[in-house]
C-alpha cells in the first residue's frame, strides 16, 4: 500500500496560508483602494518618527525638559518600534494580518491622544513608547497585507513603489507638518493629527480587506523578543553614555557588555527555538539580507538628517518652526516625483544597480550639505543639496523595500515586513545616537577653544552630515559588491 508523503508542518502551513490568502484577495479595483489606506497608515508610522523634531524646542519649554530628555522623545518611539517589530511580524503571521493591523492602529491612535494630552515629561515619554509598540504591530502586518493583495510581480513592484515612496515622503513631510501644526495650534497637534486619520483607517479597512485567519501556530518566542529589545536599548544607551560620560566610564562599559551579552543570547535563543522570532535561515535569501542591510543604513542616515536639519535651521540659522518646516518642501517634492518613477528605473537598469546609484546620489547630497556655513542662506546653500538628498532618499526607499521582501513566501510575509521595518528603525536609533554624539563632540571641542556657539554648532552638524554621507556610500558599496543569487531578484 503506497502512501503520499506529507509536507513538513511549517511548509504545510505556508502553503495553506498562500492558498487561503489568494482566495481572500479583493477585486482589482478594491485592492488599490486598500493599498491607499494601508499606505496612509504607514505614512502615520513614519511621520511620527520625524514630525516631533520641529516641536521639540517648544515641548522642552512647556514641559521643562532638558536637551537630553528631549532626545528621548524621539528615542522612546524608535526603540519601542524597532525593538518590537520582529515580534509584531510574528504575531501578524500567527493571528492574522488584518486582525493585528487593526489592533496596532487602535493602540497607535489611543497613545497619540495620550501624548497630546501629556502634562509631564514622564507621561509624554510613556505615550511615545506605547505609540512605538502600536506601530510595531501595524507596520509589518500592513506590508504583509500588501504582499497578499498584489501576488503578481509587476503589480507588486508598483505597489511597493507606492509603499516605499510613502515611507520616504512621511519622513520629509513630518518636518513640514510639524512646523505648520506647532506654529498654528501648538505642539500637542503633532500628536492629535494622528487621531482622525487613524479613525479613517479603522473605518475603511474592514470594507476593503476580508477577514483573515491565523496563518501560523506554535509558541511565541518571547525570550527572543526580550533579548533583542534589551540589546537595542543597551546599545543606544551605550552611545548616549559615551557622549555624556566618556568611552571608559564604568556605565558606558557596563552597557557595552550588556549589549554584547544580550545579542549573543538572542542568537542562541533563535538557533534553539522551535518557532524563532527570526529564523536565521531567512538570511540565506541574499536579497532579504542585502535589502535589510541597505534599509539599516538608510534609516541611520535619514533619522539623523531630519533631526539635525530641524535643530540646525532653528538653533543656528534662527528660523522659526514654520519657516524651518517650509524649507523641507523641495526635499519632499523630490521624494514624491522620484518615488513614482523609481519602478521604471528598476525595470530598465535592475534593482541592485538602481539602489546602488540611489545611495551614491544620497551621499553626494549629504556631503554637499556638510559645507553649509553658520550663516547659510536657503537658496544659496541648502536648496541644492536638499533636492539631491530627496532624489536619493526617494529612490533608495522604494528599491530597498522591494529588495528586502523579494522571494519571501506568504507564510513569512509578516516576518519580512517586520524585518525591513526593524532594520529602518534600529538603523535610525543607532544612527542618531552615533552621529549626534559625533556632532556633540565636535561642537564641545570648538567651544573649548573659544569658538562662538553658532560656529561650533554649525561645525558639529557638518560632521554629522558628512558622517551620514559616509554611511550612504557604505550602502552603495555593499549593494554594488554583493551579487544576488537569482537573476529574477536582480532584475526586479
CATH superfamily of the largest domain: MFS general substrate transporter like domains
CATH topology of the largest domain: Growth Hormone, Chain: A
Q: How many strand elements?
A: 0
- Rg, nearest Å: 22 Å
Biggest sheet overview: none
Provide the domain count.
Answer: 2
The CATH architecture designation of the largest domain is Up-down Bundle
Assembly category: single chain
End-to-end distance, in Å? 46 Å
Structural class, please? mainly alpha
Overall CATH class of the largest domain: Mainly Alpha
List low-pLDDT spans.
1-28, 487-492
GO molecular function, one term: transmembrane transporter activity
Region (Disordered): 1-25
Subcellular location: Cell membrane
Transmembrane segments: 32-56, 68-88, 100-119, 125-147, 159-181, 187-210, 222-241, 247-269, 290-317, 329-347, 354-371, 383-406, 418-441, 461-482
Short key terms for the protein model shown above:
Growth Hormone, Chain: A; disordered N terminus; 492 residues; MFS_dom; disordered C terminus; MFS; transport; 81% helix; mainly alpha; transmembrane helix; globular; single chain
